[in-house]
Amino acid sequence: GSADLVAALELQPTEGLSCIAIAVFEAAFVLPLLARGSSTADLKAKRIHVHLENHPSSRIPISELKASRIGKLATVRGTVIRLTAVRPLVESMTFCCVKCGSPCPALYIDDGRIGPPDKCSGSLEDGCRSRSFIPIRESAKFIDWRRIRIQECIPSFLPPSGTLLSTSSNPSFAASGPDAFESSSKEWLQSLGGGGPPAAAAATAAV
Questions:
Q1: By 3-state DSSP, what share of the chain in percent is helix, strand and coil, each rounded to 5?
Q2: How much is the pTM?
Q3: Going by CATH, does the domain composed of 56-86+143-206 fall within 2.40.50?
Q4: Domain coordinates of the chain in residue numbers?
């Protein structure tokens, strides 16, 4: 019910936003077909990105983005002071074991860098422990991403700032100064503290 959704948004925002995305898909694509008596068998899955606006109960200062907020919904408001160019980010890729030919998922390192698995998880009779792999490049899945640095709007002193990772839905949306920016709850990266010159207007980010 709606009460469960409110709790999920606060404590498990990834799952809560996914539930909203499913509801949007049903309302926008499935129900119109059913209303016309059409079949949904040929309906292709679509990725729905949900961004919350005007959600005051989750708004906190940038200085309060600490380890206790990991995994919870938080909204911060600040000024975009720096952003990188949009680049491709590898979400996933499969490697092939040279010894047994079994597919093995890539090992994620950080910042879009991936590497081969530590050892093969194949199912040979004696157990395949090979450490030699060949990347299956056509299996790679990419999303667009960029780093966005925001600064809290507090005129009386040098405010704290932080870095966000904008991915998937619209990484080219944000710009330094007046444009607004939104991200999902799991995209807060690092670098609390620091500073920089303030820009002309504020931007909002759901973190």
A1: 20, 30, 50
A2: 0.55
A3: yes
A4: 1-50, 56-86+143-206, 90-141
